[in-house]
Amino acid sequence: PSFVQSVLIMSLICTPDGKLMPEELSGQWRTAYIASSNLGKIKPNGPFRVYLHKLLFDDEQGTIDFYFYVKHKGKWEYKHVTGIKQEDGTFAVDYEGENVFEVTHASRNILVVHNINVDEHGKKTVLTGLFRTDDEISDSDFERFKEETRDKGIPEENIINFIDNDDCPEE
What is the pLDDT of residue 141? Predict the structure, then answer.
């Protein structure tokens, strides 16, 4: 599309500050990378080693629905959890304890997210994620994710590459 067409398209789907509207982020997403302050949460069979399948944002209802696969005791389980939008724009999600989830960067093909989990024992875990719609992730998008990870106090060595380790079944 031309520059003018691009501006018109963006004005229809974006908020005045240029951010994509939540509904525009709904659809098929795949996990590319996840980082965690607690590696046990994202190791094989860990509760946050999630293979995202779909996200559905409903701004009118103030919800986000996560559809994903996770391995439990060596077997794949398909999960669906719902988050409720809070006044600060984050989402409260009940999964493996209490979570505060937010999208920190979005484009048509990538999402950078941040999640704080407090499990049933009161242990806090900070996570970041990079999700994709296709196989291409630019160097600048990956750098943005790594910067978010560092900003949240997670060492880069705690980043797990899901692209190279995806043995998740397709629906």
Answer: 93
3-state secondary structure the chain: CCHHHHHHHHHHHECCCCCECHHHHCEECEEEEEEECCHHHCCCCCCCCCEEEEEEEECCCCEEEEEEEEEECCEEEEEEEEEEECCCCCEEEECCCEEEEEEEEECCCEEEEEEEEECCCCCEEEEEEEEECCCCCCHHHHHHHHHHHHHCCCCHHHEEECCCCCCCCCC
Q: What is the pLDDT of residues 75-96, one digit of tens each?
A: 889 999 999 999 998 999 999 9
Q: How far apart, in whole angstroms, are the C-alpha atoms of residue 97 and residue 69? A: 18
pLDDT digits (tens, 9 = 90+) for 40-63: 999 988 999 999 999 999 988 999
Instruction: Give the tokens for residue 103.
Output: 């999208």
